[in-house]
Amino acid sequence: MNTHRKQRGVAAVELGILLIPLVLLVFGITEFGRAIYQYNTLVKATRNAARFLSAQGPGDPADVTTAQCLAVYGNQACTGSALVPALTAAMVSVCDSVSCPTTNQNQPTGSGVINLVTVTITGYPFTSLVPFVMPSITFGDISTTMRQVL
């Protein structure tokens, strides 16, 4: 009976010691998951904008603006909230055969030119909700290139 009394409260002390690293681990996993989710959303946004531009003619400023709206808001009307926090149209750049003539690639047979369109999101800042576990970071360039059908 005396040994039982000495062991009283040991489980609570052990829980207190292990609770801090476990909470930090859970917050770290959560923040890492949020970062991957936002990165994946940005990849899909560039893909949707490039897909839209691949069906349009090169060099139309209205189409570029529409593609930027698709990348930022997910719709062509530029309405609603951004797909991810702090994403702006200034971060979205479009490169096609008119704005970047070097995107025209000769086919291997030399029989013509392939028009490519590239949509890039540059400098997106991921803001961590728990910066002492995972610091805020800035993503590298996220881009998608597709063939432009004329």
From TrEMBL:
Assigned keywords, A-Z: Membrane, Transmembrane, Transmembrane helix
Which regions span the lipid bilayer?
12-30
- Residue ranges occupied by any TadE-like domain in the UniProt entry: 9-51
Say yes or no: keyword Membrane present. yes
A Pfam short name: TadE
What name does UniProt use for this protein? Pilus assembly protein
Q: Which organism's genome codes for this protein? A: Rhodoferax sediminis
